[in-house]
Amino acid sequence: MADWAREHALEAVLLGHTLDDQAETFLMRLARGAGVDGLSAMADHRESEGMVWLRPLTGCGRQELRDWLARQGIGWVDDPSNDNTAFERVRMRKALEMLGIAPESFATSARNLASARQALQEIAVRTAAGAEVASGSLALPLQPFLAAPPRSAAVFWSRRCAG
């Protein structure tokens, strides 16, 4: 998709993920044992593969979007794979229906975890202030590092290692 977008000189790609997709993604990641990073909401904006990816509909439910499209006289195409239980997302969608928990609840939890992730990242940056690199080693100021919440160190390292 990124290649196609670049070939057509697009500045950004808008994705159709909805609030329901947020909830399904949360459950998929929860089933894998994800932590704060993985359980955080799908980003509404991210840059990857030389493209800007936007998700403008993550606050809108799937049925709400379909109702709006119908009122506007705009059709849509349902991907037949959306009914194929061989796909994890479809199984999670069905699990959500069986649980009877509103997708908004999962999406809210994901957004709350995204806020927690951001706070942990800020703590990690403050904790690492004054760090020095010498002979290929990273020396962190000891007292701020010891005083920081344990998870902030993991966030610091995951960000540094990811680039």
Explain this structure.
The relative contact order is 0.14. This protein is mainly α and 163 residues long. The chain has one domain: 3-Layer(aba) Sandwich (Rossmann fold). The strands form two sheets. The chain has a three-stranded mixed sheet with strand order 1-3-2. The chain has a two-stranded antiparallel ribbon with strand order 4-5. Helices cover 56% and strands 10% of the residues. It has helices spanning 2-7, 19-31, 36-39, 62-72, 88-99, 103-128, 142-147, 150-162; strands at 12-14, 45-48, 51-54, 132-134, 137-139. The longest helix is centred in the last third of the chain and has 26 residues, at 103-128. The protein is built from eight helices and five strands, in the order αβααββαααββαα.
Task: Outline the biggest β-sheet.
Answer: 3 strands, mixed
CATH superfamily: HUPs
The assigned CATH architecture is 3-Layer(aba) Sandwich
Number of domains: 1
Total count of helical runs of at least 4 residues: 8
Order of helices and strands: HEHHEEHHHEEHH
Q: C-alpha Rg, in Å?
A: 20 Å
Q: Fill in the CATH topology.
A: Rossmann fold
Lateral arrangement of strands in the main beta sheet: 1-3-2
Class based on secondary structure composition and strand pairing:
mainly alpha
Distance between the termini: 23 Å
Estimated helix fraction? 55-70%
Count of beta strands:
5
Provide the CATH top-level class: Alpha Beta
* Overall 3D form: extended
SSE blueprint:
Blueprint: H1 2-7, E1 12-14, H2 19-31, H3 36-39, E2 45-48, E3 51-54, H4 62-72, H5 88-99, H6 103-128, E4 132-134, E5 137-139, H7 142-147, H8 150-162
Parallel strand pairs: 1-3
Antiparallel strand pairs: 2-3, 4-5
